[in-house]
Structures are given as structure tokens and as C-alpha cells.
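Before relying on records like the one below, remember that each one covers exactly one chain. Contacts with other chains, cofactors or solvent are not represented anywhere in the record.
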Amino acid sequence: MAVEPKAVGQFIDHDELIDYLPHKGKMFLLSRVTQHDVNLHTITSEYDITKNCIFYEEEFGGVPTWAGFELMAQGISALTGITNKIKGREPLPGMILSVVDFKASVGFLKDGTTVQMKIAEDFRDEETYTYRYLCELYAAPGDTEPAATAKITVMETEDMKGMFSK
């Protein structure tokens, strides 16, 4: 069943954004979207680092940068959700297939900071619903060098349960 196409603004705050992703509660790791382009398959999103983050480590006063791949992946999920809403399609469940070339220049994303994720698709296979994204995570909006980078490959499926049944 198709969904009625809808206009979606460039800035999407937390309270609206939560409707675009399957993640809920402590696993919802986006604070806002500041830019998206469903034709170029790009998105810029942000996350406010606090002690409430599921990955927060008190002894280091922040979130380990390795957890940034999940922040990046949720940016991808937001882009998919926005695309489906704009194009009037039902969202499909998805999964991370791989995270490669992950590099980080800092160990932790500090409490009280806002990190920014810039994501751009660089591979698309509509037949298998497989997509790869070049992802950059900045320790603060406006930074010129990313604190972490990765290539994340994801796949959507029309039948998540069927993929894992005999």
C-alpha cells in the first residue's frame, strides 16, 4: 500500500525525526537533520552527546568514537525514511551489511558536544536493495576535518523475517 507523498522540510528536529526511523528509546541516536537531498542521496544529521547515550562511558566523559558508526547508520536510516515519505512509499526494514575503512582521529566524543554526520551514497543496486554510503562524523558542526570516517553498506528488504527463516 502506497503512502501519500508529503513535503518534508530540510530541518527536521528530534520530535518529528523519530517518526522516520525504527529506532526508539535509548537506541534513537539522532537529534536533528539539517540537510537532505533524496535525489543525490545525501544527508547531514546531528546528535547531542549526553550522559543518557546508550554508549556513554562515565570514566571517559563521553561516547567512544567507534560507536560513531551507529550514529552514521542512523543518518542513513533517516535518509531512507525521508525518501520513502517524500516519494509516497512504505518504508522497508533494513540492516547494516558492512562497515569498512573505519578511521577515527579522536578516542571519544565528549559530553555536551554536538557531533555532525555527513553522508553521501556512492553505490546503489535497486535490484537487491543494497546501497553503500561514504560517511563522515565531525566532533562539532563547522569542523573542517572529520573525527571519524567509514563506508557503510546497507540493505533493505521487503521481508526481514523471511530472510532468516528456513
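The helical segments are 14-17, 68-87, 160-163.
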